[in-house]
Design a protein that fits this description.
Blueprint: H1 2-14, E1 19-24, E2 29-31, H2 37-40, E3 44-49, E4 60-64, E5 79-80, E6 92-94, E7 103-110, E8 118-127, H3 133-243
Parallel strand pairs: 1-8
Antiparallel strand pairs: 2-6, 3-4, 3-7, 5-6, 7-8
Transmembrane segments: 176-200
Pfam family, one: V-set
Domain Ig-like: 26-109
């Protein structure tokens, strides 16, 4: 009878009461489990879901030999032993907790001896994470700021384009004005040259006509004088023949 009482006492001591752990969806939750590695040395530990049985771990999640995790016993990569195994910290961390992860978990430390295993139970409560209204507001404000900055950039770009187009228009108009002035100057120069050429031609024609008139008079006047002189000399000769000689008769040939 005394043996049964001692056995129940040992079981009561070796099994710790279950502690409640609260986590939120999307977060990482750690279930703490440690042992005195300096006293016992490296021990075999297993994690299970539900109540730890009298021996072993039913519905096992993962296990370790005290130095390394036995990967063949890991059910999911979401279950990690992130503590220092060399210090006896075999706490299990559940990554990215969801509502389906809520429930009872157990850690079993295999201490050498009869019915000496250390058991720890944890009741995991998972709550919904609050809505991130602040982040949504910040996102909207950021989007608004980005839109405003983009609009400002577009406005400045439009101003630059407008100023560039106006300067280009001014340059084109000034170039057109210069071209028109040059064309007008060229036309005036051509008209002036044409007028001068016509005036010079008229002067030359006038001089040529005057020379022709004077030349004809000069040419005709000596000829007429010679004809008059020849006629006069011929008449005088006729008269001289008629008056001369001994009164001989001569034939007159008209």
């Amino acid at each position: 009878m005394m043996k049964i009482v001692l056995l129940l006492a040992l079981l009561t001591v070796s099994e710790s009461d279950g502690s409640s752990v609260v986590g939120q969806t999307g977060e990482d939750v750690t279930l703490s489990c440690k042992y005195n590695i300096k006293y016992y040395g490296a021990l075999y530990i297993c994690w299970a879901r539900g109540v730890i049985p009298a021996s072993g771990c039913s519905d096992q999640l993962l296990s370790t030999d005290g130095h390394n995790v036995k990967e063949e016993t890991r059910v999911s990569s979401r279950y990690q032993l992130l503590g220092r195994l060399e210090d006896g910290d075999v706490s299990m961390t559940i990554l990215n907790v969801s509502e389906t992860d809520a429930g009872l978990y157990g850690c079993r430390v295999h201490i050498p001896g009869w019915l000496n295993d250390d058991k720890h139970h944890f009741d995991l409560v998972v709550e919904k994470a609050p809505q991130t209204t602040t982040s949504t507001t910040l996102t909207r404000e950021t989007t608004t700021d980005q839109t405003a900055s983009t609009t400002g950039q577009l406005t400045s770009t439009e101003r630059l384009l407008t100023s560039s187009s106006s300067s280009i228009t001014a340059e084109v108009s000034s170039s057109v004005s210069v071209v028109l002035v040059l064309v007008l100057v060229g036309l005036v120069s051509l008209v002036t040259a044409a007028v001068l050429i016509i005036a010079l031609r008229r002067r030359r024609l006038g001089k040529l006509s005057g020379l022709q008139v004077h030349g004809s008079v000069r040419f005709r006047s000596p000829e007429s004088g010679l004809q008059l002189q020849s006629r006069e000399s011929a008449v005088e000769n006729i008269y001289q023949i008629d008056d001369g000689g001994d009164g001989g008769e001569y034939e007159y040939c008209p």
